[in-house]
Amino acid sequence: MINIYVCNSDKKISSQKIIFINENLGNYVENDLEFIPNNFTVDTSKQQKISVYQYKGNFVKLKSLSDIPKAKNDDYLATLKNYYGTLSFGNLYFDNTCENSVLPLYYSCNTHSITSYLIYLKKINNNWKIIKVKQLWIS
Question: Which of 3, 38, 79, 105 is the most buried (most CB within 10 A)?
């Protein structure tokens, strides 16, 4: 399970922004897989789901994508004046030592624009650290 936290911000804004999180891993664009090193594989024995924690701060509030009313998706998001984006994740890919990992990430800032990233992680002192973020494309 991956826990998502957002750092608190001291910025004063007129309304709190909402970021929706797709809690199920496994979202990906086929062409993005070519950027994942060949020796990295998905560990299917581990749960591939994100746990979204309620964040209370000045800038952003995380909500589950499943909170959007059924059959409304894009229309509903377009009506939210404080909608800040949606995050979706691919599966976690590990090397054979399980000391390095790659995670595909997709960020949509509106209903028509998506940016694709690969997040490279390394296990250091038993904690996972982001060592590199590579932007793949923007649509």
Answer: 105
Contact 15, 56 (CB under 8 A): no
Rounded CA gap, 60 and 58, in Å? 6
The burial of 15, by beta-carbon neighbours within 10 Å (0-12 exposed, 13-18 middle, 19 or more buried), is given as exposed
Question: Both tokens of residue 84?
Answer: 């800040």
What span, in angstroms and rounded, lies between the C-alpha atoms of 83 and 78? 8
pLDDT at position 94 is: 92
Buried b (16+ CB within 10 A) or exposed e, 95-104: eeeeebbbbb
Domains of the chain by residue range: 2-138
35: region left, alpha or beta (phi > 0 left; psi from -120 to 50 alpha): alpha
pLDDT digits (tens, 9 = 90+) for 3-46: 444 444 444 445 678 888 888 777 777 787 888 889 999 876 76
Burial of residue 112 (number of CB atoms within 10 Å: 0-12, 13-18, 19+): exposed
